[in-house]
Design a protein that fits this description.
By secondary structure, this protein is of the alpha/beta class. The chain is built from 23 helices and eleven strands. Strands 1-5-6-7 form a four-stranded parallel beta sheet. It is globular and about 75 Å long.
Length: about 500
């Protein structure tokens, strides 16, 4: 029986690979020439990465849907902002210091830091992933190095947000990206302002001990009633929305669009997590610029692990009350050895089947999920997967054939290619496509499908999607004409 079971699984996997969608035939001579030029990068057993860099830098790339604002600003820019504020850097901890004091280590100005090459390079390795693998040095585990970066630049990250959004816009335009859907920030409602310490403790305990969706719903009804009946809660949501709208002024143009997600932080107490989620849902309902809600922070954190199902039930509750609000969830950003095996069995499954996620961010542990086969069918029919190759390699050590991209592609699950935190990873969306192509060599037609997926599965309105896709059509005509000319000039 065991042999038959294994044989059945092998036959199923073979069927899935065989069912991979065939690329469409070229629709024009230019498209055919572009496809042929792309394939020329794979004529030897080593992909021509230089040619792929040129190709994907020029190629229209639609949208970047898994995109964190704070993680997308480069450390050098954050240092400029620190300098503008007249703040300092602690030369031992490399933390931002707003006022010089009687610290053990000297606080240095940004100019002093940059003039000291040793200190400057050290800061870049802590504020980003720069040089992590380039040479032997003392280093934290890669996932810690990645997530710790946010603690270094967090004091400055929201100080020039309007400037930062324009930097992201300019970078997107320079690499032919039409749409950014960025995870901006929490709404900023603190549960301590509405519940005293004893009330919060009792509610947190009750939420932790709730074992069914019905029990969670009853508790969330009580919490929601406090917020919806309190004018201050609505005022805080309104203030957040107003700030987002102010910072967005001048961002959208004829050829570029930016929208925002808000989120909860999964390592906090459940009352605060739900507070952030409810505030986020209210914000989406209040502004067309805020288009979705997410949940962030390391999925392997002890609190995140212990409360995972509870968080999914919170999304279930909110989805039943506000079905018009889209949500994309970080789920399955895990791999073998990172957590106990039991934690690999259900995270993506619950994100889709309990929380009803419209998109799955990362989805790396799909091969370990207990219901992986039915889950693939569910995702194919109802959701998309956001693939983030650079961060998956750095944080999880998952790359090449260990990555589940090939499973998703073979089954026909809608895929979008994203950057995650390009400032921390020090890359861009073109680089993510280069990694995709050099590792897996999907056809040019398949890559174009991923580009259009990034608009089809975005949280834009139907009219906005139609507008961006018309622009994409025109951009691809120009790109393919240029690549066709390039192909003729290459020997």
């Amino acid at each position: 029986m065991r042999y038959l079971k294994h044989l059945s699984l092998l036959l199923l996997l073979s069927f899935l690979v065989g069912c991979a969608p065939m690329p469409n035939l070229p629709k024009s001579d230019d498209e055919g020439a572009t496809s042929a030029l792309y394939d020329r990068s794979f004529e030897t057993h080593i992909p021509n990465v230089a040619m792929l860099n040129l190709f994907f830098t020029q190629m229209p790339k639609g949208g970047d849907l898994h995109h964190h604002y704070t993680g997308s600003i480069y450390a050098e820019t954050y240092l400029e902002w620190v300098k503008n504020k007249g703040w300092f850097i602690d030369s031992c901890t490399f933390k931002i210091v707003k006022v010089k004091g009687n610290e053990t280590c000297k606080s240095v100005s940004v100019d002093e830091l940059i003039s000291n090459d040793t200190l400057y390079r050290k800061l870049l390795t802590l504020w980003s992933d720069k040089d992590f693998d380039n040479y032997s040095h003392e280093q934290l585990p890669p996932d810690s190095n990645f997530f710790n970066t946010f603690g270094y630049f967090s004091p400055i990250s929201d100080q020039y947000m309007d400037v930062g959004l324009n930097i992201i816009k300019e970078r997107a335009l320079n690499e032919n990206v039409s749409y950014i859907e960025t995870m901006l920030s929490r709404v900023g409602v603190n549960s301590t302002e509405f519940f005293n310490a004893d009330e919060a403790k009792n509610l947190n305990n009750a939420l932790h001990h709730a074992t069914t969706q019905e029990e969670v719903n009853a508790l969330l009804d009580r919490i929601s009633a406090v917020y919806t009946q309190n004018q201050a809660f609505g005022e805080k949501v309104h203030h957040f929305v107003s700030e987002v709208e102010r910072r967005h002024e001048g961002i959208d143009t004829e050829n570029f669009t930016m929208r925002f997600q808000t989120y909860a932080v999964r390592v906090l107490e459940p009352l605060q997590v739900y507070t952030d989620l409810l505030a986020g849902y209210k914000a989406v309902l209040s502004s067309p610029l805020i288009v979705g809600v997410n949940i962030v922070a390391p999925e392997n954190n002890t609190v995140a692990i212990n409360d995972y199902t509870l968080h999914m039930r919170m999304f279930n509750y909110l989805a039943s009350h506000y079905p018009q609000v889209p949500h994309s969830l970080h789920a399955g950003e895990l791999t073998i050895g990172m957590v106990e095996p039991k934690e690999l069995l259900f995270h993506i499954t619950q994100a889709r089947k309990i929380a009803g996620a419209d998109r799955i961010g990362h989805g790396v542990d799909i091969a370990y999920e207990k219901e992986s086969l039915s889950l693939l069918k569910e995702l194919k029919e109802h959701a998309a997967v956001e693939i983030n190759l650079s961060s998956n390699e750095f944080i999880l050590g998952v790359t090449g054939k260990e990555h589940p991209y090939s499973i998703y592609a073979a089954y026909g699950v809608p895929i979008v290619i994203s950057t995650d935190d390009s400032g921390v990873s020090r890359d861009n969306l073109a680089h993510e496509y280069v990694l995709l192509a050099s590792r897996y060599h999907p056809s040019y037609a398949t890559i174009k499908t991923y580009v259009y997926n990034s608009i089809d599965y975005s949280f834009l309105t139907p009219a906005e999607k139609a507008k961006v896709k018309i622009q994409l059509d025109k951009k691809f005509e120009v790109f393919e004409r240029e690549m066709s000319t390039l192909a003729k000039n290459l020997k």
